[in-house]
């Protein structure tokens, strides 16, 4: 089922090129080739929960569409659970679950319960297994009161939880989540995240999470894959991202009075001043202790605090080059 | 067996989805009835000046009108049904979700449209026909045998109508905005089904051709089967419908293969 080396999703030198035709004259049309995915390789092991991030148009959706078999790669090798997704799409779809934050897989006019009944028939889920899975999702996602409500009457957060349930009733090996928390309030977000963590821990479901909400990634994924312009920018643990992105921590210093920008502290530079308050940036990998003792010795300190690098800044910096 | 159960469940869901909208159904019944009265009085005027037009006497012509009203929603003679929904899913990309499902697209939509049709036949068909029968002198058959032949004929009418609309809807994969095409599909159906005037009325080559086109299987043939006016026999009418159903469903299947391959190759 898995590759010999334990890879569950195996992507090698994957490319996808689209030909876009544009009108360039009255009757003339010129064709431009767009490299949406340009030689990406990565390997996901069974049970891994990976964040897949990149700006709009980076090639995330294109990659996920190829992983799920609804788009053919232009070149490269692609295996999901040992299967070529495009050639064996109908076989593979029984083993994957897909959740879109911006689309629904449920039937608008039907109560959740009826939608799930259809899902049971579609995937030929044995009755007992179905009941068990549904009960578990209902409990963890607190759907009990909502089962008989038509989908069109659900709030966004409720619908999202309903959609996640629909994607999991057939025990998929892989779950693709595309912006699963977009537009959700804090409580709903927390509930969805907690559920995904539980799912991953209990079932060992492999999860690939595409999102713009980096707090999703911070709370759910140990590993991130970053792509931009169709190329792989980073693949590794979340913590390592800070170093790659030249992450910096910030020391916020409150002085007794307004002073000229602090100078002469090795490894730190003043990035901002505002009255008696000054902001000093220093590398995320460096210790703050020597800086603080030096500052305390040379300046009239009243208070100070340290800010950790913001993952969003880190990634923005990576994209910028 | 699994497939049968799945498709029954899909059809049932189609039925339920339409059954949810009671006010819309009531409004539809009202519209059908009003439309029926307008057509009925037009036909009375017409048959008054031309008795036996198209081989029908006046009460047969009126029966044709009210049969048309009974089938208008069920056989989607003015378009609609799954077509609008499928078209919208192609346009906004939700069709990708359908491709993530372990199902056959055509069979899925057919089952769901049959469920819709079953509801609309009961919810929007029976009442207008009953009103028509009370208000006018209709040539409805007394023999249960005719009604028993009418039922499969209605089923085939819905299937042919589905198969036609499926072909039009699939064109959305190429056109992206198929609103114009949907309007064309509805217009062709309105005329060539016999909804505006029975196809037997049209003389010469146009009449011949119109009676052979697939749309004729969606109203003209079922109405003739009900009234016993089908040239040849009711069996010939059913065979004509079944033949078109087969041809059009096969064409839909082929076009679907090309269309999904296009999506798969080019991106949704």
UniProtKB/TrEMBL annotation, chain A:
Classification via Pfam families: ABC_tran (PF00005)
Domain of life: Bacteria
Transport as UniProt keyword: yes
Domain spans labelled ABC transporter: 9-254
Keyword terms: Antibiotic resistance, ATP-binding, Nucleotide-binding, Transport
Entry membrane topology: Peripheral membrane protein
PROSITE patterns reported for this sequence: ABC_TRANSPORTER_2 (PS50893)
InterPro entries recorded: AAA+_ATPase (IPR003593), ABC_transporter-like_ATP-bd (IPR003439), ABC_transporter_ATP-binding (IPR050763), P-loop_NTPase (IPR027417)
GO MF annotations in UniProt: ATP binding
Cellular compartments annotated: Cell membrane
Protein name, as recorded: ATP-binding cassette domain-containing protein
The species this protein was found in: Streptomyces spirodelae
From TrEMBL, chain B:
Pfam family for this entry, one: ABC2_membrane_6
UniProt entry keywords in alphabetical sequence: Membrane, Transmembrane, Transmembrane helix
InterPro entries per UniProt: ABC-2_transporter-like
Membrane spanning residue stretches: 21-44, 64-82, 121-142, 154-176, 183-206, 234-255
Protein name: ABC-2 family transporter protein
């Amino acid at each position: 089922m898995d590759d010999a080396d334990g890879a569950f999703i195996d992507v090698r030198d994957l490319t996808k090129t689209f030909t876009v035709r544009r009108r360039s004259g009255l009757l003339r049309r010129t064709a431009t080739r767009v490299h949406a995915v340009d030689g990406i390789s990565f390997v996901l092991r069974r049970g891994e929960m990976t964040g897949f991030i990149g700006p709009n148009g980076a090639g995330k959706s294109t990659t996920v569409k190829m992983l799920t078999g609804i788009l053919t790669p232009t070149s490269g090798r692609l295996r999901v659970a040992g299967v070529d997704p495009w050639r064996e799409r109908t076989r593979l779809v029984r083993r994957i679950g897909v959740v879109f934050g911006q689309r629904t897989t449920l039937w608008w006019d039907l109560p959740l319960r009826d939608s799930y009944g259809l899902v049971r028939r579609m995937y030929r889920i044995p009755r007992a297994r179905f009941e068990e899975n549904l009960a578990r999702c209902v409990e963890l996602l607190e759907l009990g009161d909502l089962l008989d409500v038509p989908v069109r009457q659900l709030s966004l957060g409720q619908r999202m939880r309903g959609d996640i349930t629909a994607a999991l009733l057939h025990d998929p090996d892989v779950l693709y989540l595309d912006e699963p928390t977009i537009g959700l309030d804090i409580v709903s977000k927390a509930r969805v995240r907690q559920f995904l963590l539980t799912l991953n821990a209990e079932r060992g479901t492999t999860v690939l999470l595409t999102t713009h909400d980096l707090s999703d990634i911070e709370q759910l994924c140990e590993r991130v894959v970053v792509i931009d312009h169709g190329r792989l920018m980073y693949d590794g643990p979340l913590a390592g991202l800070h170093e790659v992105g030249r992450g910096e921590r910030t020391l916020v210093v409150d002085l007794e009075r307004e002073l000229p920008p602090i100078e002469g502290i090795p490894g730190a530079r003043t990035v901002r001043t505002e009255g008696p308050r000054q902001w000093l940036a220093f590398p995320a990998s460096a210790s703050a202790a020597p800086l603080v003792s030096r500052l305390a010795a040379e300046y009239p300190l009243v208070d100070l605090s340290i800010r950790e690098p913001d993952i969003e800044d880190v990634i923005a910096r990576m994209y910028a080059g | 067996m699994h497939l049968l159960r799945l498709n029954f469940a899909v059809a049932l869901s189609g039925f339920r989805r339409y059954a949810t909208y009671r006010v819309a159904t009531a409004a539809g019944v009202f519209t059908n009835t009003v439309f029926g009265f307008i057509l009925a009085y037009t036909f009375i005027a017409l048959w008054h000046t031309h008795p036996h037009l198209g081989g029908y006497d006046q009460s047969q012509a009126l029966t044709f009108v009210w049969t048309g009203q009974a089938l208008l929603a069920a056989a989607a003679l003015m378009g609609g049904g799954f077509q609008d929904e499928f078209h919208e899913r192609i346009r906004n990309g939700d069709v990708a979700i359908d491709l993530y499902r372990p199902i056959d697209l055509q069979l899925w939509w057919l089952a769901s449209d049959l469920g819709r049709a079953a509801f609309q036949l009961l919810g929007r068909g029976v009442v207008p026909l009953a009103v028509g029968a009370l208000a006018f002198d209709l040539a409805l058959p007394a023999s249960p045998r005719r009604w028993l032949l009418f039922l499969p004929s209605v089923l085939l009418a819905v299937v042919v109508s589905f198969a036609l609309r499926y072909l039009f809807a699939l064109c959305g994969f190429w056109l992206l905005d198929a609103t114009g095409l949907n309007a064309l599909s509805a217009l062709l159906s309105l005329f060539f089904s016999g909804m505006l005037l029975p196809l037997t009325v049209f003389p010469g080559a146009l009449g011949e051709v119109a009676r052979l086109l697939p749309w004729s299987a969606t109203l003209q043939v079922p109405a003739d089967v009900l009234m016993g006016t089908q040239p040849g026999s009711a069996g010939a009418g059913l065979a004509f419908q079944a033949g078109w159903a087969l041809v059009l469903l096969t064409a839909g299947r082929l076009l679907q293969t090309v269309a999904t391959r296009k999506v798969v190759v080019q991106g949704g």
